[in-house]
Amino acid sequence: MSASIKDVAAAAGVSVGTVSNVLNRPDKVSPAILERVHASIEELGFVRNDAARQLRAGRSRSVGLIVLDSANPFFAEVARGVEERADAEGLSVLLGNSGQHGTREGAYLDLFREQRVRGVLLTPSDPSAAALAHAGIPLVLVDGDSPDGNLPSVAVDDVEGGYLATRHLLERGRRRLAFVGGPLAVRQVADRLAGARRALAEVPGAHLEIVEKPALTVLAGREVGEEFAARRPEDRPDAAFCANDLLAVGVLQGSAILGTIRVPSELALIGYDDIDFAQSTVVPMSSVRQPAREIGATAIDLLFESLADPDAAPRRVRFRPELVVRASTGG
Prior knowledge:
There is one protein chain. By secondary structure, the protein is an alpha/beta fold. The protein contains 11 helices and 12 strands. The protein has helices at 5-12, 16-24, 31-44, 50-57, 73-88, 102-114, 158-171, 187-200, 218-230, 245-257, 292-308; strands at 62-67, 92-97, 120-122, 139-142, 153-156, 176-181, 207-212, 239-242, 268-270, 287-289, 316-319, 322-324. A 6-stranded parallel β-sheet has the order 2-1-3-4-5-11, with helices on both faces. It has a 4-stranded parallel β-sheet with strand order 7-6-8-9, with helices on both faces. A two-stranded antiparallel ribbon has the order 10-12. Helix 9 runs parallel beside helix 10 (245-257). The longest helix is centred in the last third of the chain and has 17 residues, at 292-308.
């Protein structure tokens, strides 16, 4: 059983209050008492319970971060941006992975509320989760937005990103396009598809096939690539815009590596996020870049703004995406 503050006080021959002063206000304690108490702490192996102390004080030195998929390199970079900025302010980050499930997201929100976190950074599976803000916990939406704009948020213009990706394929002369993404209920996926449709509307004779998958993973993309390879050449798309790079890598594996489709001559491929792996695939992948780490850092800056002035109007930050052309589209 671990030693308590009472055990330290008994071993040092002082009061519990004196031990508390040694831990929290050492300037109020004489050097002799300091030495005696620290010797008892070392002898007993006492570890202070910072969590309990912070809860008694009404707040912790932590912030909560909930993302849709912690295995996705994009969200890993967002988390890195959050952690770097939080660390500079002496705060730690508690990470939750919702897996795009509202119930799991709600469980993390309840947990973070119980932990008295300073605030929560949330990539929402359901924007209605904004109700947490009315429970007295500052909330910032990451890679998302609240329907009524009543919460601070940071994101990329995904409609513009979808437009850039699709226009690039059309400018390469492709006319039988496929959009690979899903679930379409995910806001980011729906926005990227909306951008693709906008670009397609500018080019008469172009066609868009929508391939919806249940997850944005390499395995899901591989299934799509294998299905493309199983079609007759005249029935295949000649270009595919994938809602993220993981899907695009999977389509490349299924169509060109496991199948017989040549990329980019028979199938031009472009992804989204521009993760590090995109440029090191067998055929380097064109992509739409998001400033993931900057998104994370900006999100926690917005949280600090809310903490400093809870009555201030919520600020919404929007980054512009950037087209990155590589060999998979003939770049």
